């Protein structure tokens, strides 16, 4: 599902360049659950952005389902993301002017799916929000907003789910509920999971751990 070879990322820093990621290589098989862990500033979120084609590498390659994403133009990368990927972010990334139903249906509508609302409503029911379809994000708790984000991610039936600190803005009890729900939905769908987290207990629930330290892969 994912092949990474000699991946590196540099950014400008003052008069010089700062290397964020150093020549990283690994692969993720279809159906695997992989945690990406490391201290703050180790390059976890940068790596996830490169895997998703949201950022371009300074060197090396990322292949998703056999396609080298850095060789694609932005429109083709966006189409590939729409076809393969679901995302769950720490900050939920819901649109405040849209209801829970509209937020969950949005990626399906962008794909031109005629059943967007029905599919989104069913998925919101699956995450326990069947009675909250027409509520706006400001009227939902943090846990409920993250459930909407999960419903949105799984509604497109992604082959690959990427989650970046999905419980980072939630209290411990709510975060635990969201994680249980995410793993349950992931098992049901047979989705490949790449989960960025600083939580070692959460990482241990994944089949494999990729550990970053100062931009280098030291385990995995």
Describe the protein's architecture and organization.
The model has no long low-confidence stretch (mean pLDDT 90). It is built from 7 helices and 10 strands. The radius of gyration is 17 Å and the shape is globular. The chain is of the alpha/beta class and 220 residues long. Helix 3 runs parallel beside helix 5 and helix 5 runs parallel beside helix 6. The strands form 2 sheets. The protein has a 6-stranded mixed beta sheet with strand order 6-7-8-3-9-10. Helices cover 35% and strands 29% of the residues. A hairpin with a 2-residue loop joins strand 4 and strand 5.
How many distinct helices? 7
Query: What structural class do the secondary elements suggest?
Result: alpha/beta
How confident is the prediction overall: mean pLDDT?
Answer: 90
End-to-end separation = 16 Å
How would the global form be characterised? globular
Low-confidence stretches: none
Write down the secondary-structure element order.
EEEHEEHEHHHEHEHEE
Quantity of strands, as a count: 10
Share of β-strand residues: 25-35%
Q: Summarize the main sheet.
A: 6 strands, mixed
Q: Compute the gyration radius: what is it?
A: 17 Å
What order do the strands of the largest sheet run in, or round the barrel if closed?
6-7-8-3-9-10
Helix content range of the residues, please? 25-40%
């Amino acid at each position: 599902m994912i092949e990474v070879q000699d991946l590196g990322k540099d950014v400008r820093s003052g008069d010089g360049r700062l290397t964020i990621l150093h020549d990283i290589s690994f692969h993720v098989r279809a159906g695997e659950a992989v945690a990406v862990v490391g201290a703050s500033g180790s390059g976890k979120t940068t790596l996830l952005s490169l895997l998703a084609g949201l950022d371009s590498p300074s060197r090396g390659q990322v292949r998703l389902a056999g396609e080298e994403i850095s060789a694609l133009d932005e429109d083709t990368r966006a189409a590939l993301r729409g076809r393969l990927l679901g995302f769950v972010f720490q900050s939920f990334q819901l649109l405040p002017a849209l209801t829970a139903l509209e937020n969950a249906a949005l990626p399906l509508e962008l794909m031109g799916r005629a059943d967007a609302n029905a599919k989104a409503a069913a998925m919101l029911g699956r995450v326990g929000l069947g009675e909250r379809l027409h509520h706006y994000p400001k009227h939902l708790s943090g846990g409920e907003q993250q459930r909407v984000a999960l419903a949105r991610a799984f509604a497109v039936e992604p082959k690959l789910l990427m989650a970046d600190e999905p419980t980072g803005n939630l209290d411990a009890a709510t975060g635990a509920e969201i994680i249980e729900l995410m793993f349950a939905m992931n098992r049901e769908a047979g989705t490949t999971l790449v989960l960025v987290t600083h939580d070692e207990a959460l990482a241990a629930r994944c089949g494999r751990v990729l550990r970053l330290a100062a931009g280098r892969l030291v385990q995995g």
